[in-house]
Amino acid sequence: MSIRRPACLILAVLGCATLLGAPAAKVEMPEPLELDLDLPMALEQVLLVTEKLGYEVVEQDRAAGLIRTRDDETISGAYADSELKKIAVVVTDYQTSFHKGKYYMELQLSFLAPQRTAVAASAVIRGLKRSADGTEEWAPLKSNGVLEMRFLNELSYLVTGKRPYEKKLQYWQKSSQEIILRK
């Protein structure tokens, strides 16, 4: 009986440690946006949106329908960790933190039909991880879909006037509405 108690205690502690570890974040990546445009016209619209959002195109393969933007290295400073958490799934512990971040967008255009094109966006995000012993390394981070939704929403708004990827807010996050009483 006395041997079972420590064994049960050890299993309980290990079970709690795995639950307190890295939370499994649910990431909702947007589906590719289907546009009623031919491939050259869709490519021009994508280039307009990249320019509007401030991205600089570094690589463009019209035959493959691939566009890559320059690294955006504006994430730095004291709030880099919290800024990275807005666009990526970041798991840190008490010994590590992120001090810089950079990302670039990869845009893929696919031919579906003569007047139908699909546009997929993906963000490649890296963070400069600094540990307690002073070592630094660029670590890849998984995107949470915010940058992709932002790009595809702007593209859809430019072409159709609608934003299909608007996130629906929870009840407690919505702003209050004015109540109009009629007599």
Would you mind describing this structure in some detail?
The chain has helices at 4-20, 39-52, 80-87, 146-159; strands at residues 33-35, 57-61, 66-69, 72-76, 88-89, 96-113, 116-131, 136-143. By secondary structure, it is α+β, with helices and mostly antiparallel strands.
The average pLDDT value, as a whole number, equals: 81
Helix/strand order, N-terminal first: HEHEEEHEEEEH
Shape: flat
Strand content: 25-35%
Write a brief caption for the model.
By secondary structure, the protein is α+β, with helices and mostly antiparallel strands. It is built from four helices and eight strands, in the order H-E-H-E-E-E-H-E-E-E-E-H. It is flat and about 55 Å long.
